[in-house]
Specification:
The chain has helices at about 15-45, 55-70, 80-90, 95-115, 125-140, 145-160, 165-175, 180-190, 200-215, 220-270, 295-305, 315-330. Helix 1 packs antiparallel against helix 2 and helix 3 runs antiparallel to helix 4. The N and C termini lie far apart (about 105 Å). With about 325 residues, it is mainly α. The structure holds zinc ion (3 copies). One zinc ion (ZN) binds near residues 277, 313 and 318.
Length: about 325
């Protein structure tokens, strides 16, 4: 599986150490060969090393081999393919060694930046802050050695603030040398469920587990995991907003329900038989001796369909006193 995994930033401590020691060995080997070459030239040629075409060509070959050779475990293996292509083109185009060295230095600086400032999936929030600050410092005139010691100091502070469990996990990660180990670290980090997992988190972990099972390269999984985490955060915000909307809708619904209840109550109120005597308005009894006291003519008209409502009286007294005026108002024609 290792071959499938493209080397990716951030580096583990073990990877950074391996890169540094290989780089040191490579550099001293190249320097040794260059020294031998110039000595050979000095003892065999009369033109002087810088003007000797034969040995200048050999020197170019030494640089070319050192810069473009297969680079497993070296910092160049973390760089995009374009970098090696660029160098090959420069050698083919007979660019000066100074120019080529300049290109290498530029890429090396970018490599240092990427290794110091790229977020890892399991980064502690403080570790992220350190990386952001380091990236900021790189934009200033701060010397590289100051940035290096800033990072070392802050990382030590952070490490001592971690729980022993976290320290153990960090040590385990720091030790992993191969992309394969880093892959399994990421897998463990991404796919192990936590007691605090939301249903969405559980879904995401299932999705990530599938990616790992399908051996999707680390460099492709990393952005997916990071995007999912960011989305989950904004989803939580959306959910919060939706809940607020829901609460508002619920409140509106309750208000509408209350209004409906009120109008129902009013209708029921209206259904109460009110005495039709002018100026009375008493509620008529529905049971008892005074129930169903009403105007006979209105009854008849209502039965014929000519009237909508009966006319009720609250008491025999009201009926007696007001029958006359009722008749003259409603039945005089
Ligand atoms: Zn020579
Ligand atoms: Zn009547
Ligand atoms: Zn009455």
């Amino acid at each position: 599986m290792t071959a499938d995994i493209q080397p990716t930033y951030p580096l583990t401590k073990a990877q950074a150490e391996e890169i540094a020691s290989l780089h040191e060995a490579d550099t001293s080997e190249l320097e040794g060969r260059l020294k031998d070459l110039s000595e050979t030239c000095q003892s065999n040629c009369t033109t002087g090393f810088s003007k000797c075409t034969t040995h200048q060509n050999e020197m170019r070959k030494l640089y070319q081999t050192a810069y473009t050779a297969a680079s497993s475990g070296r910092w160049t293996s973390y760089r995009p393919e374009e970098y090696t292509q660029d160098l090959k083109k420069m050698f083919d185009a007979q660019a000066s060694i100074e120019k080529i060295n300049g290109r290498v230095r530029k890429e090396k600086l970018q490599h240092i930046k990427d290794s110091q400032c790229t977020f890892g999936p399991g980064d502690h929030p403080t570790a992220k802050k350190i990386k952001m600050r380091a990236a900021e410092l790189r934009g200033t005139a701060t010397p590289q050695s100051d940035i290096d010691s800033y990072i070392t100091e802050e990382e030590e502070k952070l490490l001592s603030a971690l729980t022993s469990e976290e320290q153990e996990a960090q040590a385990e990660y720091d030790k992993s040398k191969s992309e394969d180990e880093k892959y399994s670290y990421l897998r463990t980090y991404a796919c192990t469920s936590q007691p605090t997992d939301t249903p969405r988190d559980i879904e995401l972990r299932q999705k990530w587990t599938k990616l790992f099972e399908n051996k999707v390269p680390y460099s492709e999984i990393l952005p997916v995991v990071e995007k999912d985490i960011a989305d989950a955060k904004s989803n939580a915000q959306i959910l919060e907003n939706r809940l607020a909307d829901l609460r508002n809708a619920q409140a509106a619904n309750n208000k509408a329900k209350a209004a409906k209840e009120e109008s129902k109550r009013k209708q029921a109120d209206d259904a109460i038989r009110r005495c039709c005597s002018e100026g009375c308005g008493n509620v008529c009894e529905l049971n008892g001796p005074n129930a169903d006291l009403g105007c006979e003519r209105c009854f008849a008209l209502k039965e014929e369909g000519a009237l909508q409502d009966y006319s009720w009286f609250c008491s025999p007294e009201c009926a007696k006193t007001n029958a006359g005026s009722h008749n003259s108002r409603f039945h005089s024609a």
